[in-house]
Amino acid sequence: MEYRIDKKEQGHCRLECAFSEADVQAAWKKAGIRFGSSVAIPGFRKGKVPLAVLEKQFGQQMADFATDKLVARAVEHALAREGLQPVSGLDYEGGLAERGKAFSFSMDFCVLPEGDCPDLASLPLELGDAVADPVQEELFLREMLARGANKVQVTEGTPQDGDIISADVIGRVDGRVVPGLDGPCRMRLMPPVEGEKAPDLDPIVRGLRIGETGVGSTPCPDNYPDPALRGRTIELSATLRSIEREELPELCDATARKLGFRNVEAMKFRAREQALDMDRLHRRSQAMQQIQNMLGAWQGFDAPELMVKQCQRDLLRRSTQYLQRQQDSGPEFVESMARMRAEAAIAAVARARARALLLMWARQNGVELPKNELDAVLRGRAARQNKHPDDYLLSVARSGEAFEIRTAMHEEKALYALFDAIKARRSAE
């Protein structure tokens, strides 16, 4: 095997590989062993079927297998020799390895650009102390009591505070069903809180009896996948299907002991701690989003072009999967995809910029992704596809999916580490 890596600007790399006829033949023999050991062909013993015979029946699969073997070998060898770590997928250019012929391919990928990273730990992040929300405390206390509750199905009357209701919900804009707002819904009705808006379905279902239908409206959220629907008024229709009521035990020391607590005060203390934990998580999530927004809008830094393309592909893949679950292919699907494609092209620039800056900060501050964490995720992906981990890695050799997964995991670890660094610096100040 011969290879060459051409290093360009902004971390852009191009790998070119060439294999001799002998290399290709060896890969095809491995493909023959793989397929020949699992099939029975009349006139031949299992595992002794000639390549030419196997090729007639499994030609496409064997060519894919041989190609993936060669590509995986080339990528692993070249990256190890050159000390490179892709932070994008692999843009493969080349056909399939044909038995008895030399084979060559090329692929583009990107690595982190050289240079120092800005002092991201000085970002003006809004941080605050966690506060236990009294409403959340009551909810957690209720959840504890619910472990000893008697649950009954209500068939008469309308829902009350604390009831768990099931309803069939449909949302429409201009008479058209909104994807994602067409199906069953299950929720608990909570007492109204002064100054807070109740969930959109709450006022619709409260006055209904089983089988009755109510209507209402809500604005389409700003983060809805289809930009054309954001801010539009969604007409909601809900049919109440069931009411489940919990008859809670009395809040007393005897109940607390049955539930594993020393007394009522211990239960209330635990509820408050859970409410504090929830607020901490909420604040951290908001802070993480602040960090990514600030990095995405960072001036004077452009992410590698291939990383931008990778982020755009990721955004489009999620949009496509969402629409395919919600809409049949047709004019509306095509229109929605066109809008999402245009939005993804813009969003990918900021997304890639934030990713590149985080990874550069991680490199500069020694934030690594342990190999065992990546291996565990790859094994999980392989298991979900009913594949051995080695077979899974081979199947994604030409796409570089493993590098994409590693990059996303490393970015997340860098984000958490940066958040902790910003907090530590604020505390020191």
How would you describe what is shown here?
The protein has 429 residues and is α+β, with helices and mostly antiparallel strands. The protein is 49% helix and 17% strand. It contains 11 helices and 9 strands. Strands 5, 6, 7, 8 and 9 form a 5-stranded antiparallel sheet that branches. A 4-stranded antiparallel sheet has the order 1-2-4-3.
Beta-strand proportion: 15-25%
Rg calculated over all Cα atoms: 29 Å
Number of domain units: 3
Profile the largest sheet. Answer: 5 strands, antiparallel
CATH architecture assignment name of the largest domain: Orthogonal Bundle
Written as H for each helix and E for each strand, in order along the chain, the element string is: EEHHEEHEEEHEEHHHHHHH
- Total DSSP E strands: 9
Overall outline: globular
Number of helices: 11
In the CATH hierarchy, the third-tier topology of the largest domain is known as: Trigger factor, domain 2
**Arithmetic mean of pLDDT:** 89
Level-1 CATH class name of the largest domain: Mainly Alpha
Helix content: 40-55%
Given helix and strand content, the structural type is alpha+beta
N- to C-terminal distance: 57 Å
Low-confidence stretches: none
